[in-house]
Specification:
The structure is a single chain. The chain has about 260 residues and is mostly helical. The protein has a two-stranded antiparallel ribbon with strand order 1-2. The two termini are about 15 Å apart. The protein has a domain at about 115-250: Orthogonal Bundle (Tetracycline Repressor, domain 2), CATH 1.10.357.10. Strand 1 (about 45) and strand 2 form a beta hairpin. It contains 11 helices and 2 strands. The radius of gyration is 21 Å and the shape is elongated.
Amino acid sequence: MAVSGIDGSAWSSSLESDGGRSRSTRAGARDDRELRARASGDVADGALKPDAMPAESRKPEQSRETQTRLIRAAKNLFASKGYAGTAMEDLVAKAGMTRGALYHQYRDKRDLFRAVFESVEADFAERIAKAAAAEADPWEQLRAGARAFLAAATDPAIRRIVLIDGPSVLGWEEWREIDGRYSLGMVRLVFEANVAAGNVAPQPVEPLAHLIVGALNEAALAVAAADDPATARDAFAASMDGVLAALRIAARTAHQ
């Protein structure tokens, strides 16, 4: 029996449930506010007029804008200079704001790093979901997701922030909790589809998902630390293909 792959909406749902509200959800809420404002005439050049919004309602929006500026600036610095090599003075200068504004949003450099880490993890997960969703067959989705995971380990921001500095700055427990929140749901989903398709023998998918995520994380850490990340990525991708192929062979043998 043919079983279709996971569609894009299912991937989006897995990201929302494991990593919080999606960008599209937040954008939709913003669009609703703008449509209501447009109907009442309280828009100017496609944006809400400042005097159309109560001061209290502007404060959360201004806080989010400040956080976005800080995260963007910090991401660039943490990726290029590393956590230890980035001073608070560098951060406020890059963001174009005062130390007071930074400390109003984040307790310290580590707190800001955690926010940057979550942002990079969310982008990381979205990249993997898109690569998997580009395939129609659940088995190819599994392989594409694994390859995208390892390929992302060569991205400078992911390599430095998530794989090198992340574990040491946040500690293993917090690093694993955040990483698992973004990646585990997707892996669980694709294994459920492959069990249904007969590509993987019937079994509880939770332990299997944990094992594969753990293996991919270890491979990604090794790729990030390698002298030649691209060569290491290709070698680990071939090894992961072999691991996944063994699962498929076991399933087909069981069906005979």
